[in-house]
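Researcher: Please translate sequence to structure tokens.
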Amino acid sequence: MFKKLNIPYKKMELLFATKNPAKVKLYEKQLKKHGITLKSIKDLNFELNIEESGKNSIENAYIKAKAYYEATKIPTMGMDVSLMLEEIPEEKQIGTHIRRINGKYLSDEEAIEYYTNLTKEYGGKLTAKWVYGLVIYNENGAKKYTYSKDNFYFIEKASEKRNPGYPLDSISIIPEYNKYLVELTQEERESLNKDNEEKEKVINFIVKNAK
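Model: Translation complete:
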């Protein structure tokens, strides 16, 4: 079992360089236990126009974290993710442009439609892998962390259920349960030990490097 860090309790604010409330919700409750109030771009009175020009998720996370820290002087967390699909050729790999396809930013429903059509084009099933990049930027500079998730695959038929902000949960199948990710019960989610241990490592990384 991954041991929790013994970090002294100290209240502070951490800016999460995202507008996605689902991403904030994923971490804010646990971080609050460590005295960290997680804020998002929506809590600010302005938004930066950032060109996410990195070659991978960690570079984009760094770009976002650095830009918002320099603008606000609030310790900032940047996060990005790359998508790898095993069955499609390299020139069609998605990389970090998961929502921005052919210059257009896709809504949740548009993303579901695009990826179900892509999955159908390559036989109805795609072996998928998420590669995450996380950067904390503050007065001490940048601290980086990366991890991946590969215990799922896409299918061409989407679930009717939705997880706002995470559209691909509706086409992702978890082999352990042969169910859509979006349809897993809380108990089933908690039983996925690898994901739980990784999330705990992420929380520990944030707590250690944000303070």
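Researcher: Any highlights?
Model: The mean pLDDT is 91.
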